[in-house]
Design brief:
Elements (H helix, E strand, L loop, with lengths): L2 H10 L22 H8 L6 H18 L3
């Protein structure tokens, strides 16, 4: 196999590495200065760290709004 053919084959046959995606979307949210540090200070590993804390807060807010409060 010629070198250029090998590289082309290599590029097209790469598979994803690591764990499979759990969530299809990513949300980029600008936060006020110091917010990530505050989140890190209160987030626990059991609840999923900063990301888990944010997900839980979103779920609570969605339930609150859907219940009409």
């Amino acid at each position: 196999m010629a070198r250029s053919q090998f590289r082309e084959h290599e590029i097209h046959s790469k598979r994803g590495v690591g764990r499979p995606k759990l969530y299809a979307e990513q949300i980029r949210v600008p936060l006020a200065a110091g917010t990530l540090e505050r989140l890190a200070a209160v987030a626990t590993r059991e609840e999923g760290g900063k990301v888990g804390l944010v997900r839980a807060a979103i779920e609570r807010e969605l339930r609150r709004r859907q219940s009409g409060r």
